[in-house]
């Protein structure tokens, strides 16, 4: 049996890490310590967000599709609430918000593109 989550993890994590690390280096160069913290935080958040999704997909792949949907929906709700709490906590720090947003968006785009490329290789 093909392990789809593993294929997607490998295909997506490499470009996401390359983009996230590059963005963190750029943020550090232009914004100093606040930029480094912003880039590193964005990288960790994006990677964790997507890895949780893959773990749920791997664990529920033999369940009824309706039950799988319930798990995925619950995980998204949990991640959104966690993300809101995390953003509130980050708002009290000296994080560089524009660099945080830029690195987070670029890393997420890298992850999604990597997943699409991995999916296309399966066909």
First CA to last CA: what distance? 16 Å
Which secondary-structure class do the elements indicate?
A: mainly alpha
Strand content: under 5%
Give a quick account of the main beta sheet: strands, pairing sense, barrel closure: none
Query: What overall form do the CA principal axes indicate?
Result: flat
- What's the count of strands? 0
Average of pLDDT: 90
Low-confidence stretches: none
Using only C-alpha atoms, the radius of gyration works out to: 16 Å
Q: Percentage of helical residues? A: over 70%
**N-to-C order of helices and strands:** HHH
Helical segment count: 3
List the helices and strands and how they pair.
Elements: H1 4-59, H2 65-91, H3 97-122
Description:
The chain is mainly α and 123 residues long. The protein has three helices and no strands. The protein has helices at 4-59, 65-91, 97-122. α1 packs across α3 (97-122). The longest helix is centred in the first third of the chain and has 56 residues, at 4-59. The chain starts with a helix and ends with a helix. The model has no long low-confidence stretch (mean pLDDT 90).
Features:
123 residues, mainly alpha, 3 helices
Short summary:
This protein is mostly helical and 123 residues long.
